[in-house]
Amino acid sequence: MTRVLVVDDEPQIVRALVINLKARHYEVDAAHDGTSALELAAARHPDVVLLDLGLPDMDGTEVIRGLRGWTKVPIIVLSARQTSDEKVQALDAGADDYVTKPFGMDELLARLRAAVRRGAPVGPESESAIVATDTFTVDLAAKRVTREGKDIRLTPTEWHLLEVMVRNSGRLVSQKQLLQEVWGPAYGTESNYLRVYMAQLRRKLELDPSAPRHFVTEPGMGYRFEL
Description:
Blueprint: E1 3-7, H1 11-23, E2 27-31, H2 34-44, E3 48-52, H3 60-68, E4 75-79, H4 84-93, E5 97-100, H5 105-119, E6 130-132, E7 137-139, E8 144-147, E9 150-151, H6 156-167, E10 172-174, H7 175-182, H8 191-205, E11 215-218, E12 222-225
Parallel strand pairs: 1-2, 1-3, 3-4, 4-5
Antiparallel strand pairs: 6-7, 7-8, 8-9, 10-12, 11-12
Helix pairs in contact: 2-3, 6-8
């Protein structure tokens, strides 16, 4: 069974999450502060963490950094904080996704299932090198993109950006992470680079670049690749 660690200091939210998760056959542990969360994570090794940022003893981003020191467990932030800066800080600290309170349970459960799938261990042989959408196909091993059976020519920068997005399929990737992975560690604030190259990818690969289905912008935070 999939084990979920719920970290929140609001008893009614913890209770609602525990009831809904157990009803869907998840094993659930709950912590009401950051210290207990880190101790439980080390002892119980959850498959995914649902984490509130506003904890009584430390900020949630400290918990994320503490977890990232030893584990790649998927972390979904649940928070009433809505400013872009705070969301970006959580993502840059190592969170995998961000859900703003109040949230719909169905959406949260869908995000949780996606996070668990991404966090499942795979070997090099079992990891798929072919990613197919209804519009185009990406061959990560061959570094090749096809659409309607025809090769699509991408520049090296376009390919690198596409590769990072595809390898993080379904996950919100912050602007800073994309910039540093594609352009290098000295880059972190040049969001205009991303706008230009993302527009180029959409023109080449989306059916309707003005209403992108696969390269989704999360305003103020980053981008998400959806199949």
